[in-house]
Amino acid sequence: MKRLICAVLLLMMVLVGSACAEEIHEPFVWSGVKTKVVRSYESDDLCFTIHRLMIKKRTTCYVTTIWMKEPGRQVKKAAAEWGKSLAAPSKLAKKVPEAAVVINGSGYINQTYPEIPETYPGTSEDYYNTSYGSLVITDGEIFRNLEDVPFYGVVLNAEGLRMYAGVLPEEILQTNPISTWSFYDKCVLINDYEDVLDRAWDFAEHKATRTILASIDRNNYVILTATNNIGLRLTTATDFLMEHFHPQWAYNLDGGPSSDLFAWKKNSKKLRNIFGTDRKDFDVMCFCPLPQE
Predict the structure, then answer these.
(1) pTM score, whole prediction
(2) Does residue 24 belong to any structural domain of this protein?
């Protein structure tokens, strides 16, 4: 009888240990390229490191690796007033005072950039000072839902960040989304660990400033920021991510003059600009520590 009891207790300990192991997620360790660490932070629920490096020996880039314990609670969106105006990312970030890392988010439509997808009903003027996306949500509030137009972009729900490629809004709404970020339909670079970039797309071969978000797993993410000294082709960026990270997915957020990267200053919890001109944008993506209970 004692042996049976001991066996049962041992089995319970193994099961409990296995369950705990599933909840412990280690920060992703990246190496293999010569870099300079320009900023880093580590805590029990948030770790990030910003590396500066050269890609193709000509383009200065930043690779930010981020680990979050509970990404569904630690990623936040801040947006400008819908249909009214744009705002500088530094101003938008003030809406999320706990943010440790902030990047630009969705592409936007206005008088300067009036292009809209052919699948969107109406005219460009109907979308001025709003973001791309057949589904646009900020903190649970739905601002746009084009029911018959597939969504391409990144969605935050309670589990964390997920990329969707050509899914109708109805399916996404069933997951109780919190916030969305979107740009052009072809900005899906990697999906299900495979390179899916349309390399015949003219935009993919343009050298430009870039902000690309990639997911390693539920807790680990990578941000590739290509600066404007030379710029980076999407083909080159995708090849780099596949070679060094092989992520689950990667999505090209807004870039060009909209690209921005902010992070806590060393030994301080004050945001400082790492790269970008703080030009007006529609929304930003913020990575934060867990709120103190």
Answers:
(1) 0.89
(2) no
